[in-house]
């Protein structure tokens, strides 16, 4: 006899379980009679059709009719039944021309467990023998991974981590770093300025920081020497994206200020860091350079990790170092005494060094990536390789 939804008189958990179990048993039984698509449509409408499907009926006869104090509980159970019925109806659907998997004996019960086990638990709707929906595991982004690696090299040397805002003032990004207004060194930074700031004094105007060096100033404002900080973060420059440029990239800044810090300390620290990052056979060399906030300044080069510093490999010129044997990696120098004036440090008493390195550049070398855009395109095929 075809199943009809009964009216309920007893709203106890036990009675509900029983009624639910009956309903699901009926679903189970009727599902086996489905032999073709037309059958399935009738079956579907009977059970989940909006107008007068069984689900609509239990909503009216069980839930709406329930006494106030039982509503919560009944609602929960009715919801569970709804989920199971919907899943059961879906599990019975099959492509035209195929046999109902349920009848062919290939499939299992449209319900996962015999209905008589009760419907009180949601797990009843789970068929643990079905392949699950695999949820892809996330992986740390290669830039974050590299950044963490760099930071941990310095943490091991006793540095602490400081951060600063990505939207900076002209003062922190330039002025306090000894880039006077209109100084040509500002041009090297391809700055993205925030619009409509002209009414403010220059030092208060906002821009997207072009480097992490402003965090040097913020750290020195916050703490007295001795200072040893690393400052990882995102920076922005007005560069068109291509294989080697990106308007957004990342840097890790470092700053050490104390009494008697010398260029030797800078060299030793960075030589150690490069060996920690690229392997102990890597050599470093310091090449004269210019930054307004360091004096003297240097670019650090490492011996080419692709050709071992020889400039040649695979019977030809090494394309990575353009046969020079060296790869330029970061900027550094001794903190310019002018900078200390902005943060109330006594330049006669303290000295220090600073360095800044591009995280993408280091990741590109470490992982042999040939296009910086890969880091930003969000293509899982690339990113999952770092999982
Ligand atoms: N901030 C510089 C840049 O982005 C790098 C740097 C940092 C140089 C610290 C010296 C000292 O180009």
Fold blueprint:
Layout: H1 13-31, H2 37-48, H3 54-64, H4 71-92, H5 101-104, H6 142-155, E1 160-161, E2 167-169, H7 170-173, E3 192-193, E4 206-208, H8 214-222, E5 227-236, E6 248-258, H9 263-278, E7 284-291, E8 294-303, E9 312-313, E10 316-317, E11 326-335, H10 337-342, E12 351-358, H11 359-367, H12 380-383
Parallel strand pairs: 1-5
Antiparallel strand pairs: 2-4, 3-4, 5-6, 6-12, 7-8, 8-11, 9-10, 11-12
Helix pairs in contact: 1-4, 2-4, 3-4, 6-11
The structure holds phenylalanine.
Description of the structure:
- The radius of gyration is 34 Å and the shape is elongated.
- The model is unreliable at 113-123 (pLDDT under 50).
- It has twelve helices and twelve strands.
- The longest helix has 22 residues, at 71-92.
- It has helices spanning 13-31, 37-48, 54-64, 71-92, 101-104, 142-155, 170-173, 214-222, 263-278, 337-342, 359-367, 380-383; strands at residues 160-161, 167-169, 192-193, 206-208, 227-236, 248-258, 284-291, 294-303, 312-313, 316-317, 326-335, 351-358.
- By secondary structure, it is of the alpha+beta class.
- A seven-stranded mixed β-sheet has the order 1-5-6-12-11-8-7, with helices on both faces. A three-stranded antiparallel β-sheet has the order 2-4-3. Strands 9-10 form a two-stranded antiparallel ribbon.
- The protein is 34% helix and 18% strand.
- β7 and β8 (294-303) form a beta hairpin.
- The protein folds into two domains: 13-122, no CATH class; 142-386, BirA Bifunctional Protein, domain 2 (2-Layer Sandwich).
- The site of phenylalanine (PHE) has 11 residues, from β11 and β12.
- Phenylalanine binds next to β11 and β12.
């Amino acid at each position: 006899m075809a199943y009809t939804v009964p009216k309920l008189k007893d709203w106890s958990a036990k009675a509900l379980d029983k009624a639910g179990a009956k309903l699901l048993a009926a679903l189970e039984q009727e599902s086996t009679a489905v032999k073709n698509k037309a059958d399935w449509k009738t079956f579907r409408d009977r059970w989940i059709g909006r107008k007068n499907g069984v689900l609509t009926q239990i909503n009216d006869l069980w839930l709406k009719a329930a006494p106030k104090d039982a509503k919560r509980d009944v609602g929960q159970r009715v919801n569970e039944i709804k989920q199971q019925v919907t899943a059961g109806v879906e599990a019975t659907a099959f492509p035209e021309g195929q046999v109902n998997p349920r009848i062919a004996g290939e499939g299992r019960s449209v319900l996962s467990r015999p209905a008589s086990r009760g419907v009180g638990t949601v797990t009843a709707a789970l068929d643990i023998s079905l392949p699950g929906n695999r949820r892809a595991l996330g992986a740390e982004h290669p830039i974050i991974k590299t950044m963490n690696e760099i930071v941990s090299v310095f943490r091991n040397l006793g540095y602490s981590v400081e951060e600063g805002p990505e939207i900076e003032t002209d003062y922190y990004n330039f002025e306090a770093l000894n880039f006077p207004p209109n100084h040509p060194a500002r041009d090297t930074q391809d700055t993205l300025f925030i619009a409509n700031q002209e009414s403010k004094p220059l030092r208060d105007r906002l821009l997207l920081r072009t480097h992490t060096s402003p965090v040097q100033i913020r750290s020195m404002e916050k703490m007295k020497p001795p200072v040893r900080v690393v400052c990882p973060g995102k920076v922005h420059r007005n560069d068109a994206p291509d294989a080697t440029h990106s308007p957004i990239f990342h840097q890790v800044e470092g700053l050490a200020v104390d009494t008697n810090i010398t260029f030797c300390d800078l060299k030793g620290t960075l030589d150690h860091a490069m060996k920690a990052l690229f392997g102990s056979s890597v050599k470093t060399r310091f090449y004269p350079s210019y930054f307004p906030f360091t004096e003297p300044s240097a670019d650090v080069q490492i011996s080419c990790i692709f050709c071992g510093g020889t400039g040649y490999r695979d019977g030809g010129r090494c394309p990575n170092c353009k046969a020079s044997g060296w790869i330029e990696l970061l900027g550094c120098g001794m903190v310019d005494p002018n900078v200390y004036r902005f943060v109330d440090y006594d330049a006669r008493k303290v000295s220090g060094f600073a360095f800044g390195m591009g995280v993408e550049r280091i990741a590109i070398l470490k992982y042999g990536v040939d296009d910086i855009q890969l880091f930003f395109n969000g293509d899982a095929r690339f990113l999952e390789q770092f999982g």
